[in-house]
UniProtKB/TrEMBL annotation:
Keywords: Hydrolase, Metalloprotease, Protease, Zinc. The keyword Phosphoprotein does not apply. Pfam families: Peptidase_M16. GO terms for biological process: proteolysis. This is Peptidase M16 N-terminal domain-containing protein. GO terms for molecular function: metal ion binding; metallopeptidase activity. It comes from the Eukaryota. Residues 1-23 are annotated as: Disordered. Transmembrane segments: none annotated. InterPro entries: Metalloenz_LuxS/M16, Pept_M16_N, Peptidase_M16. Residues 99-230 form the Peptidase M16 N-terminal domain. The keyword Zinc applies. The lineage of its organism: Eukaryota, Viridiplantae, Chlorophyta, core chlorophytes, Chlorophyceae. Belongs to the peptidase M16 family.
């Protein structure tokens, strides 16, 4: 596979967002910020422009400050500790796996599980570009237990970004009409089937040659669909802003 065929490059949806993240990058002029969508004038006289970018299922908010009148206020704001959700439960299993639990009432009778692996495209060597995305495809679809969720109303998917590979399942607990359990093995707990599927996807996938070849074609098809002028411009911008590291080429 050639690099041009399978290279993953996350679109930079907002130049303001990249300016806020890139070390040493010049900030846009205050006048430009004032004219930008979502820009507003702070009480201190500084222009604040908020750029929103959805990447890999996560909402990233980057704010660029220009002409700050009182830097002390900004330092105080940035030094404030973000308080966790009151019902958030965190811990670590004996095998080192960290877990986070958060009760959710809306929508009702649904269960979501996200398994985040701390490995992504930035961990590839120069001759491996695109492999992280391919591995995500093969491991996700190479799970028999994931297939057991078919027909239960569950939605499963995966994504790869620079630093993470995430597998997630969104599943109804009961039938909305009959209140009958939707997931198999409900006697062991409604979430058991979902957690078993995620564990198999991450730690015991089937790397069959036929599956690898099929998903290789799927990855190349995705790359072809994304190969637009806007996407190539975004990639060039990333390479310019991150020329000191590998992010622009991963």
């Amino acid at each position: 596979m050639s690099r041009a065929q399978v290279t993953r490059c996350t679109p930079a949806r907002s130049q303001a967002a990249l300016h806020a993240r890139a070390p040493g990058a010049r900030r846009p002029a205050a006048a430009a910020l004032a004219a930008a969508p979502g820009a507003r004038r702070a009480r201190s006289g500084a222009y604040i422009s908020a750029a929103f970018c959805r990447r890999g299922g996560r909402l990233i908010v980057a704010a660029t400050l220009a002409g700050v009148a009182d830097a002390t206020d900004v330092r105080q704001l940035l030094s404030q500790e973000i308080q966790p959700h009151g019902e958030l439960v965190q811990g670590r299993l004996p095998n080192g796996l960290q877990y986070v639990l958060l009760p959710n009432k809306t929508p009702p009778a649904r269960f979501e599980a996200h398994l985040e692996m701390h490995v992504g495209s930035v961990d590839e060597r120069a001759d491996e570009q695109g492999v992280a995305h391919l591995v995500e495809h093969v491991t996700f679809l190479g799970s028999k237990k994931r297939e057991s969720l078919l027909g239960t109303g569950a939605r499963a998917n995966a994504y790869t970004d620079f630093h993470h590979t995430v597998f997630h399942v969104h599943a109804p607990l009961v039938n909305g009409v009959t209140d009958a359990p939707m997931l198999p093995q409900a006697r062991l707990g409604a979430a058991w089937a979902v957690l078993q599927a995620l564990a198999e996807i991450a730690f015991a996938p089937q790397f069959l040659p036929t599956r690898v070849e099929k998903e290789r074609k799927a990855v190349l098809a995705e790359a072809q669909m994304m190969n637009t002028i806007e996407y190539r411009v975004d990639c060039q911008l990333l390479q310019y802003l991150h020329e000191e590291n590998n992010l622009g080429y991963r």
